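For the sake of transparency, this paper describes our internal protein records without simplification. The record that follows is passed on verbatim for readers who wish to inspect the format:
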Amino acid sequence: MSATALLRQALPDRDRRRQIWLIALPIMGGMTSQSLLNLVDVAMVGRLGDAALAATGIGGFSNYLAIAFIIGLSAGVQALAARRLGEGRQAETAIPLNGGLMLALLIGLPLCLIMYMAAPLAFERLTEDPTVAELGTP
């Protein structure tokens, strides 16, 4: 079997590839924008010195933990909404979205407050440099 024939078997048809790209591009864009945001942070804060850069890095890690929660929640919401849509229950597709939004608010708002209040303790545990802890906390 030729390489072209193998490639045709392995790749989905053109319409399917287009659908995959339409779904994948926004996700890729979101991930790229987060990386660019981190790069801009480093470029701007790096001029302020090592301690400021270290504080930004620790803060970025904390931000990533919060984003990971949202990504996990969104995957679950998408799966539930897609299942409802696939079952032909279009009128019920918004139910998982509304539940996800409520869950994000009920968990996210208290989590923000806890993280804000726990930031000094977290920085104290994550760095030995008091300047980094001072720069990284509110």
Observations:
- The longest helix spans residues 50-86.
